[in-house]
């Protein structure tokens, strides 16, 4: 993710093992997080099996220019 604002730029890079989720408990958990956190997903919902979600198990994380207050 790379962002640009009037205060400068920032970004996050995550490297690790990726898994494509299409159904199941992990898929439902991830979908709930998206719906809870982002209005776009609440306004444009989909159901299990309609759109995959990529799950990344981080091995390397690097960020720059981003407030890390959220952890």
Mean pLDDT rating: 85
Principal-axes geometry comes out as flat
- Helix and strand pattern: EEHHE
DSSP strand content: 35-45%
Quickly give the structural class: alpha+beta
User: What Rg do the Cα atoms give?
Assistant: 15 Å
Enumerate the strands of the largest sheet in spatial order, edge to edge or round the barrel: 1-2-3
How would you describe this structure to a colleague?
The chain is an alpha+beta fold. Helix content is 25%, strand content 42%. The chain is built from 2 helices and 3 strands; from the N terminus they run ββααβ. Strands 1-2-3 form a 3-stranded antiparallel β-sheet. A hairpin with a 2-residue loop joins strand 1 and strand 2 (8-21). The longest helix has 13 residues, at 25-37. The protein is flat. The mean pLDDT is 85.
Task: Compile the SSE list and pairings.
Blueprint: E1 2-5, E2 8-21, H1 25-37, H2 39-43, E3 53-64
Antiparallel strand pairs: 1-2, 2-3
Key structural traits:
71 residues, alpha+beta
Question: Could you write a compact summary of the structure shown?
Answer:
The protein is an alpha+beta fold.
């Amino acid at each position: 993710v790379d962002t640009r604002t009037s205060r400068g730029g920032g970004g996050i890079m995550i490297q690790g093992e990726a898994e494509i989720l299409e159904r199941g408990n992990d898929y439902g958990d991830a979908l709930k997080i998206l719906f809870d956190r982002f209005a776009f997903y609440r306004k444009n919902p989909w159901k299990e099996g309609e759109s995959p979600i990529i799950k990344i198990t981080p091995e390397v994380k690097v960020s720059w220019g981003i407030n890390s207050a959220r952890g």
